[in-house]
Amino acid sequence: MKNIAVIGAGTMGNGIAHTFAQFGYKVNLIDISEDSLSKGIATITKNLDRMVAKEKISESDKSNTLENITKHTSLEEGVKNVELVVEAATENEKLKLQIFEDLEKFCDTNTILASNTSSISITKIASVTKRADKVIGMHFMNPVPIMKLVEIIRGYNTSNETTEIIMDLSKALKKVPTEVNDYPGFVANRILMPMINESIETLYNQVAGVEEIDTVMKLGMAHPMGPLQLADFIGLDVCLSILEVMYDGFKNPKYAPCPLLVNMVQAGKLGVKSGEGFYDYSESRKAEHVSAQFK
Ligand SMILES: NC(=O)c1ccc[n+]([C@@H]2O[C@H](COP(=O)([O-])OP(=O)(O)OC[C@H]3O[C@@H](n4cnc5c(N)ncnc54)[C@H](O)[C@@H]3O)[C@@H](O)[C@H]2O)c1
Q: Which residues participate in the annotated binding site for NAD(+)?
């Protein structure tokens, strides 16, 4: 495999494009928004600069990586002659089903179609194509160039051959691929989201404050970051939507999103990206201040 298309130049898409390009793959980075493409390339450049400053890569590695990436706003153009597509567009089922229907039309019949979705069923995404055996989940973690895990999700019809190719490819990116089956939340979010939801419930029930809950989990369980702060980084809207997918998928009340989470999303308090969640990011991006509503 040499030629890859990445759909979506946002948080995850630019990290995925960066990673493939750094390992010598030719990447077509596709987004409907010219602005997102420019911001995506700017982020990749900034992250490469940081790696050069830390002497993890050389100046020539940086320029080779950037040369390996080509921007596209047309899906049809961007997926021409690629062997793999990694879709990392906005987490919206209708949007992803439309993208995969289009990919079926525009891609070579042998092209493998992967999705970076956090929660949408790979089996359902595959069902709108005529190549369900070649559709797979490739769930990278944020920030992609740094995080080692790739959760590899086998849809109901994903073939052994496709799984092996994607496992090997992930290893070629110096990642640790881990194979899981396609059920709501896969493994990562099925375990992480109930913990985040329970920490919000603990706050909602006034058992302890934001800092106390995060301190217990950081110092008591050796987590690098408390669950409330992690929720802010992931995005409270994203946490809510993943919990809703699990709640609907399992029909089990244990995944019901905490009313406080629902309220905060409705109030536009989405965490780092909106400037406020459980912490206030308006003055410092370091989450030093608990949001005034919890003081
Ligand atoms: N943010 C995370 O921590 C994280 C972690 C793992 C997986 N994911 C998953 O990765 C995917 C992307 O998430 P993100 O956080 O990067 O989102 P984002 O909002 O940062 O970026 C999404 C990008 O998709 C683009 N887009 C929307 N419709 C498109 C289309 N039809 N064609 C091409 N581009 C289109 C948008 O313009 C935007 O630039 C989602 O499925 C999400 O669940 C996110």
A: 8-13, 31, 91, 96, 118, 142, 273
Q: Which two tokens stand for residue 34?
A: 């010219």
Residue keyed to tokens 């992250």: 47
pLDDT in tens, 152-205: 999 999 999 999 999 999 999 999 999 999 999 999 999 999 999 999 999 999
Q: Mean of the pLDDT values across residues 217-231?
A: 97
Q: Are 182 and 209 in contact (CB under 8 A)?
A: no
For the chain, domains (ranges, CATH) are 3-181 (3.40.50.720), 189-289 (1.10.1040.10)
CB burial of residue 54 (10 Å; 0-12, 13-18, 19+) = exposed
d(CA 62, CA 45): 8
User: Which residue bears the tokens 């450049």?
Assistant: 45
Which among 151, 170, 197, 241 is annotated as catalytic? 151
80 backbone dihedrals φ, ψ, rounded to 5°: -65, 130
Q: Kindly name the residue from 68, 189, 241, 291 that is annotated as catalytic.
A: 189
Cα–Cα dist 294/273, whole Å: 19
Q: Given pLDDT bands bounded at 50, 70 and 90, which one contains residue 289?
A: confident
Model pTM score? 0.92
Contact between 2 and 83 under an 8 Å Cβ cutoff? The reply is: yes
pLDDT digits (tens, 9 = 90+) for 17-54: 999 999 999 999 999 999 999 999 999 999 999 999 99
Instruction: Give CA–CA dist 245/137, Å, rounded.
Output: 16
